[in-house]
């Protein structure tokens, strides 16, 4: 194998070889390269009949391609989409697609076949040269730079150069402020700490917006809940929903373990918890009635409703915030207040 | 150059005369002949694994073609409208214009669904092909000098491809992609100090806001593709400058390239291969549905479907999030530190950065400053191959974790059991993969050595006159044997003082790394040994 000795680069060439801590390379490999193998003859090189056959085969693929492309164009017309008919969409998709696929594959198979069986098949050899420029080119390049340096005084006039560097660093500064108006002027942190829930706001079904009476909530049932009036919002409906979505469940009272301070937050075993996962904010949508566990389908955090939604498995770190509820004079479930902590994923200023 | 051009003179026909005139016209205005002279008979070596990068390149072209078609019909506005298209189950439902137009492309534009599916399938193929191409380059050591910089450029292409994939995934504004954005929002918010503000500015309001789809659209169809195309151009130019690597073989040396010339063979094969890639994508798109956004409904922060999955290449990030045990969060100095997000984010960044920097690490360990143009067989670099296998396994564990719920439901396991198993595998399997792979490589090297010296077992048993039975060994030809012999040997560094007479910590570290890399090795066969074996 024609191995070149380790090429000296700029650094090592200035340093005596023996002072370099050394390379791990051993270059002794004395078995010699046997050189190129004798050429392999293809059947098309040897037999003119085979050559003719190959020619016809390739032309057939190209013809097939033409047919495929035409079929695609015809299918576009023959298989129209009939509004409301899924089958027509599927047929249009399939036949236009198959026609195009035949059109493309025909060209591909034909061209590769041509290259492999008919084109001159010898292996050719090209020499490599070291990637770095030859000494003369490198010298010229260095000279050009020093010439440019001399003519401009880039290193000599340090005042000019340094102020230029400073100016270039300063130019992107306006970009930082220019992007401020990507979002409105309001402070996001205050927004993140409040939701639509407030004293007396009724709990309504998602998505119908119908308020829920305590008597409707039987033991074992679960409701997807939004604040009454959310569905009628003209602006910020999704933003409010992304914070205010709640799950309502009723457990047998004796299975509910409530701390003293939260004893008044539930109503006859009916509890309401934020539906927004405290991990990264997916809706915690799966309720297992028998175990009273809530499961987030995104990253499988599990919360135990019987124990104030504490995390029993998965990457979430905090329990789901509880919405304090009671009933109003007409028997509808209402919130006692907003959540007592920010809902959803954690953020830097959460405890401030 | 041993390239020869056929100089048989042909009498110019009418077609030839026109071609000649046109070529002259172009050349007199562009100097195109220079380019043809430099590139026309450039040699490309042949090996199936060299196709992987081509697959990536061609699926990118398919992405550009199909994506352009989609832009003619898609509108990224998040304004709420009532659906009035031809898909009956969603009639009358409130949704964003973006989702509406994505549905229209699927149900009201002929061939629209096809183009959407072509676009999505080719995106999946694009990232997959880049990944496999990187593995090929890694395991054959094709990242070594002079190609380290092109490895970095390629790495950037990989990251850009994932970014393009994710921004595109969000554009239909359906329930699934909306939940994906929600996860991203949660991750951004976890960032210390700037998280909330970054999310607020990115979404233009509280999540989800009414701007984000439009912003992602600009990134997806302009900014990111422009950067990707520029990076791709650098990748290609460096490929031409450095020339392609080749595997060891008879007549192949570190100082030559053996293969087919661009004109005509390589051009025909590569051009044909573009059509093959496009054709296969088209075939898949016409037969298999992908991302049926009409089943998910418009984005709404409250519902979610079980078994949600990101596109495959984001899986490793999603899986990393899932592997964190409960309770990883603390409050310090009045600020919240969500370690359950920050730790996986850091792990992913470390993983990606180590991939990017590996060539420089190996160059430092080997101290090898030569250019390398002969691709290693993976077995001939056992430690590197082991490291690669460990990395692949690590990625695979994260990736599997992204499907933890599906694994649990499909195999009737508990989700807790699956996650706990993967948490153990997270630490154990890369180590196991490293050890097994390295030992396997060394064993294969020994087998190669045996075959090169003594030939392979022919299965022919011969009884000698004395009654002894032997199996006849078939010898390799010189050409076949050379493939087994041609590889570089390294020996571990010894610690030596530098020219100030000191042994630095760096030198010690380097020596111990070098021992780790090269302590266990099978030496290539020398000429004498080969000669001896023949008697």
At the first level of CATH, the class of the largest domain in chain B is Mainly Alpha
| Strand ordering within the main sheet of chain B | 1-5
- Going by CATH, the architecture of the largest domain in chain B would be Up-down Bundle
In what range is the share of β-strand residues of chain B?
5-15%
Question: What is the element layout, followed by pairings?
Answer:
The complex is a heterodimer of chains A (352) and B (535).
Chain A: H1 10-14, E1 25-26, H2 43-46, H3 48-78, H4 86-118, E2 124-127, H5 135-152, H6 158-170, H7 173-178, H8 188-192, E3 203-205, E4 222-227, H9 237-244, E5 246-250, E6 270-274, E7 286-288, E8 293-295, E9 302-304, E10 310-313, E11 322-323, E12 325-327, E13 333-335
Antiparallel strand pairs in A: 3-4, 4-5, 5-6, 6-11, 7-8, 8-9, 9-10, 12-13
Chain B: H1 14-30, H2 32-39, E1 43-44, H3 51-71, E2 80-82, E3 94-96, H4 97-107, H5 112-139, H6 148-170, H7 175-189, H8 195-203, H9 212-242, E4 246-247, E5 256-261, H10 262-287, H11 293-296, H12 315-322, E6 330-332, E7 335-337, H13 339-366, E8 374-375, H14 382-401, H15 404-410, H16 415-454, E9 456-463, E10 469-474, H17 478-485, E11 489-490, H18 505-518, H19 527-533
Parallel strand pairs in B: 4-8
Antiparallel strand pairs in B: 1-5, 2-3, 6-7, 9-10
Helix pairs in contact in B: 3-5, 3-10, 4-5, 5-6, 5-10, 6-9, 6-13, 7-8, 12-13, 12-14, 14-16, 15-16, 16-17
């Amino acid at each position: 194998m024609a191995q070149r000795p380790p090429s000296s680069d700029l650094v090592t060439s200035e340093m005596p070889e023996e002072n370099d801590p050394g390379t791990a390379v051993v270059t002794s490999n004395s078995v010699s390269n046997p050189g190129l193998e004798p050429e392999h003859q293809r059947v098309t090189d040897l037999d003119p009949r085979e050559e003719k056959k190959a020619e016809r085969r390739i032309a057939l693929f190209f013809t097939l391609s033409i047919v495929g492309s035409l079929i695609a164009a015809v299918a576009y017309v023959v298989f129209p989409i009939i509004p409301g008919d899924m089958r027509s969409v599927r047929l249009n998709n399939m036949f236009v697609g198959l026609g195009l696929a035949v059109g493309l594959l025909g060209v591909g198979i034909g061209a590769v076949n041509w290259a492999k069986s008919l084109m001159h098949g010898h292996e050719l050899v090209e020499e490599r040269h070291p990637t770095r420029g030859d000494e003369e080119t490198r010298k010229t390049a260095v000279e050009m730079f020093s010439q440019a340096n001399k003519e401009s005084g880039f290193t000599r006039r340090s005042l000019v150069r340094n102020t230029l560097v400073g100016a270039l660093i300063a130019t992107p500064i306006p970009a930082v402020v220019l992007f401020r108006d990507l979002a409105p002027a309001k402070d996001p942190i205050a927004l993140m700490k409040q939701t639509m829930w407030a004293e007396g706001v009724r709990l309504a079904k998602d998505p119908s917006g119908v308020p829920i009476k305590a008597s409707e909530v039987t033991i074992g049932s679960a409701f997807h809940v939004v604040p009454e009036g959310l569905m009628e919002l003209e602006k910020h409906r999704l933003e409010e929903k992304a914070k205010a979505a709640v799950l309502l469940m009723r457990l047998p009272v004796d299975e509910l373990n409530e701390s003293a301070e939260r004893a008044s937050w539930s109503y006859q075993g009916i509890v309401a918890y934020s539906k927004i996962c405290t991990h990264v904010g997916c809706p915690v949508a799966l309720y297992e009635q028998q175990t009273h566990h809530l499961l987030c389908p995104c990253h499988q955090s599990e919360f135990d409703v019987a124990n104030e939604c504490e995390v029993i498995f998965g990457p979430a770190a905090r329990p789901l915030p509880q919405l304090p509820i009671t009933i109003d004079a007409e028997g509808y479930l209402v919130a006692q207040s907003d959540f007592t902590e920010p809902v959803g994923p954690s953020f830097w200023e959460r405890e401030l | 150059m041993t390239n020869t051009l056929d100089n048989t003179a042909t009498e110019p026909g009418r077609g030839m005369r026109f071609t000649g005139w046109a070529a002259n016209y172009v050349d007199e205005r562009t100097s195109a002949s220079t380019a043809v002279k430099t590139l026309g008979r450039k040699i490309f070596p042949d090996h199936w694994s060299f196709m992987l990068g081509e697959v990536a390149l061609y699926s990118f072209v398919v992405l550009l073609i199909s994506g352009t078609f989609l832009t003619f019909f898609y509108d990224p506005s998040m304004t709420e409208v009532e659906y009035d298209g031809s898909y009956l189950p969603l009639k009358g439902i409130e949704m964003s214009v973006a989702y509406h137009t994505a549905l229209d492309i699927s149900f009201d534009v002929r061939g629209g669904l096809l183009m959407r599916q072509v676009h999505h399938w080719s995106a999946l193929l694009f990232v997959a092909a880049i990944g496999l191409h990187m593995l090929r380059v890694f395991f054959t050591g094709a990242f070594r000098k002079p190609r380290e910089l092109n490895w970095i450029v390629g790495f950037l292409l990989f990251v850009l491809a994932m970014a393009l994939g994710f921004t595109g995934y969000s554009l239909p504004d359906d329930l699934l992609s909306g939940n994906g954005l929600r996860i991203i929002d949660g991750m951004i918010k976890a960032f210390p100090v700037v998280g909330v503000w970054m999310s607020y500015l990115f979404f233009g309001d509280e999540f989800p806001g009414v701007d984000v789809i439009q912003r992602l659209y600009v990134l997806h169809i302009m900014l990111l593709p422009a950067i990707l195309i520029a990076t791709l151009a650098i990748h290609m130019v460096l490929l031409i400058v450095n020339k392609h690597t080749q595997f060891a073989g008879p007549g192949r040396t570190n100082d030559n390239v053996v293969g087919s010339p661009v004109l005509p063979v390589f051009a025909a094969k590569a051009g044909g291969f573009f059509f093959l890639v496009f054709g296969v994508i088209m075939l898949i798109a016409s037969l298999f549905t992908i991302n049926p956004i009409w089943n998910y409904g418009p984005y709404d922060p409250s519902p979610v479907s079980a078994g949600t999955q990101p596109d495959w290449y984001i899986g490793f990030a999603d899986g990393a999030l899932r592997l964190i045990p409960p309770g990883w969060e603390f409050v310090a100095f009045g600020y919240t530190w969500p370690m359950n997000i920050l730790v996986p984010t850091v792990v992913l960044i470390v993983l990606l950065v180590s991939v990017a920097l590996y060539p420089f690490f190996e160059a430092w360990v080997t101290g090898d400053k030569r250019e390398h143009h002969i691709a290693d067989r993976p077995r001939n670099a056992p430690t590197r191959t082991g490291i690669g296998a460990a990395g692949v396994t690590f990625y695979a564990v994260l990736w599997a974790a992204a499907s933890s719920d599906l694994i649990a439901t499909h195999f009737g396991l508990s989700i807790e059991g699956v996650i706990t198993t993967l948490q153990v595998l997270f630490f154990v399997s890369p180590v196991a993969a490293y050890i097994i792979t390295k030992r396997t490589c060394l064993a294969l090297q020994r087998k190669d050595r045996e075959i090169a010296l003594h030939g392979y077992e022919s299965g022919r048993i011969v009884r000698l006159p004395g009654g002894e039975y032997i199996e006849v060994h078939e010898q390799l030809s010189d050409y076949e044997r050379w493939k087994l012999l041609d590889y570089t040997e390294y020996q571990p560094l010894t610690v030596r003082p530098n020219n100030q007479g000191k042994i630095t910590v760096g030198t010690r570290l380097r020596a111990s790394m070098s021992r780790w890399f090269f302590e266990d090795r099978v030496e290539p066969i020398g000429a004498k040994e080969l000669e001896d074996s023949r008697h």
